[in-house]
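Handover notes (outgoing to incoming on-call)

Open items:
1. MmcQ/YjbR family DNA-binding protein: sequence verified, structure written out, both below. Nothing else pending on this one.
2. Nothing else urgent.
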Amino acid sequence: MIDANALRSACLDFNGATEEFPFSRNPDVSTFKVGGKIFALTTLTARPLTVSLKCEPELAERLRAAHPEVRPGYHLNKRHWNTVSLDGGLPDRLVLDLIEDSYDLIVAALPRTQRLLLDWPGQH
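MmcQ/YjbR family DNA-binding protein structure tokens:
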């Protein structure tokens, strides 16, 4: 099961990833960004631990239908974001893949010069 430390580590393992706390009303909310754009959003102290991740709309719907731990993004565009419960119901590999997919979606939308600086595998 992925805990708060493993989640933070997984998000920060990507090239150019940073953690920021931009919400003065909710100072415990961690945002993980690349190129200034959010790819993961969580409150690491929350129980149950959840993370909101960007997702292709069609995949987002399939994941929600297949897994009760995957819900439409909380306070986000529900077409493009899922909130995933990390209470142990989903395989760790699936969660890590969803984090990577979210990062990749954000990087793919960055200007080419930023993608090159990140040495993003999808660039080559």
